[in-house]
Amino acid sequence: MHPRLAAVFPAVALLVTSCTSSPSDSFFPVSGTLANDTTVVAMSPESIDSGWIVSVAAPAIIVATPSPRPKADMGHERQSQPAPSPATPKPIVASGSESAVSADMQIEMELQEILDAAYEPVVIEYEFYSRGSDIIELQQFLDVDMVDGIYGPQTRAAHIEFLGGPEAAVKLWYAPTWDEGMYVDGGLPTLNDLVNIFFFPEDRVWALRVAMCESSGQPTDAVSTAVHSSSGASGWFQHLPKFWETGNQEGRVWDAGFEGNSILDPVANVGTAAYLFYRDGDRHWNPSKSCWGGTPHG
């Protein structure tokens, strides 16, 4: 875990953190002074339906709460859903607890300003090889070796490490958009779990074989960070970015019913693969057919 961040995904108990922040001692580019001894209480996932919590240690605190998960049709022809709007981070105070301390309105406003300023540069996801001043700011904050304004593999690896690792990034970036049926025992689904959800029984062995041939994906994996260095093919089933999202709300991710989802979102990656397979057959994975060709499937 990055030394600047204490990230808990999910929190396992109530966490009380005292915070003091000023322009000189904050890691984040914020202004103003937060009154001393302000207390923030983060609830455990058992206490909140949405589930995942981020807590950043003093001198700045982030508590991120995802937007409610939409109910999705588990079938292969899914209803269109609007792209989820980014969640707004809000201070959380445990409801129903007599020991919870609520700051007065002024302190709440000051804290929210700090959260708003710190939230955007650090915990949003960037597309691979995107460019801009915001990437430069992120690279400087993460202290990567090359500050070039390009969100490449080195920057992404440092970014994910800062957030607490690949599973933590999945919980923050993707899980808030999932239907509750995607969770297994309250945790992230594995590749095997998702193949069981989206593929018919006679095709599941083939699907797992293709994921292994395409990206070295294993049935017990909960995350795939595989990105081809030249084509940009991504995730367990190595979808190509040029087909994934083609603009004007079109592309394979839209056709499959996962509008707005990242190509590395585990649910969208497997779900879109199933959609393409049942629509077009196995031809989309012909480049690796020498590896999976003998595997029976429908």
Written account of the structure:
This protein has 298 residues and is mainly alpha-helical. It folds into two domains: 15-177, no CATH class; 189-292, Orthogonal Bundle (Lysozyme). 32% of the residues lie in helices and 5% in strands. The chain is built from ten helices and two strands. The chain has helices at residues 105-123, 133-142, 153-163, 166-173, 191-198, 204-215, 241-244, 252-255, 266-280, 289-292, and strands at residues 15-21, 34-42. It has a two-stranded antiparallel sheet. The radius of gyration is 21 Å and the shape is globular. Residues 1-81 and 83-103 have low confidence and may be disordered.
Name the average pLDDT.
72
* Annotation field: number of helices: 10
Range of helix content: 25-40%
What characteristic shape results from the CA principal axes?
globular
Number of self-contained structural domains? 2
Separation, N- and C-terminal Cα atoms: 43 Å
The computed structural class is mainly alpha
Instruction: Please give the number of β-strands.
Output: 2
Low-confidence stretches: 1-81, 83-103
- Radius of gyration, rounded? 21 Å
| Strand composition percent | 5-15%
Biggest beta-sheet profile: 2 strands, antiparallel
Largest beta sheet: strand ordering: 1-2
* Order of SSEs: EEHHHHHHHHHH
